[in-house]
Write a structure and sequence with these properties.
One of its GO terms (molecular function) is ATP hydrolysis activity. Keywords: ATP-binding, Nucleotide-binding, Transport. The chain has ten helices and ten strands. By secondary structure, the protein is α/β, with parallel strands linked by helices. The protein has a domain of about 130 residues: 3-Layer(aba) Sandwich (Rossmann fold). Helix 3 crosses helix 4 and helix 4 runs antiparallel to helix 6. It starts with a strand and ends in an 18-residue tail after the last helix. It binds adenosine-5'-triphosphate.
Length: about 250
Amino acid sequence: MELELRNLTKSFGPKHVLRDVSLTAHTGYCVGVLGRNGAGKSTLFNLLTNVLLPTSGAIVLDGLPLGETFPVGVKRRMGALVNQAYLVEQLTPEEYLQFVARIYDLPDAQPRIESLLAHLLEDYDTVRRKRLSSFSTGMKQKVAIASCLLHRPELLVLDEPFNGLDVFSADSVLALLNSYRPQALTFVSSHNLAHIEKVATHLLVIDDSEVKYWGTMADFLQGQGALLGDALLRLINPATTTAQDLTWLTTQC
Ligand SMILES: Nc1ncnc2c1ncn2[C@@H]1O[C@H](COP(=O)(O)OP(=O)(O)OP(=O)(O)O)[C@@H](O)[C@H]1O
């Protein structure tokens, strides 16, 4: 798969959120999308998944501009975790993934379902019969991630997949993404740079509505000779905030 973003621009009214985002990425790339709060990462993920339409520019998949409504065939090639994951909470995790398998018309999905859930959920034999409504935030997040992978998508779009995950769960998800990486083109965002460092082959850094860096992780780190966080701070200016008097926080009344 080859995905090209051609001068992708998104505005909300007069506010430019993304301006002229251009890149070409292929199967095997895992693109870590970085930027400060409000930089436009989720907006980009929403454009990639046809939740939002660009103001101008194009998304081109294998040479085909996708237009306003992505063809169903293209949607079947995608797995996406954007905005808040929607789960049918009266189902067990297994029932929920069986439901997802039916949507994608996947016969004989049971072995996939069991291996994904057993990899991601601790104590799977106990929790497999519980309803999702009784699951913790992190457990639900892992089921949502499993549902994105079930149909083996060629384009995987994961907006902040590590949200709510403890260190062990994050490790299982990282292992899953790393082993799946050769099969797909992955876009992933996270404010946890250690996670991005472990999974991304490429980086897309967005700031002031524009692409500040697009290229390999290796080039980004080599050029700066630093850890990812330090290199990122050097690339984008710190946010400006007005100095506030906060002594009330620590002064005895
Ligand atoms: N539907 C909308 N209408 C108007 N403005 C919007 C809309 N969606 C997003 N924005 C604005 O676009 C900008 C980018 O938001 P976005 O959610 O893409 O940022 P982000 O990089 O994902 O941030 P965070 O790291 O905090 O999740 C923000 O200023 C936000 O207020």
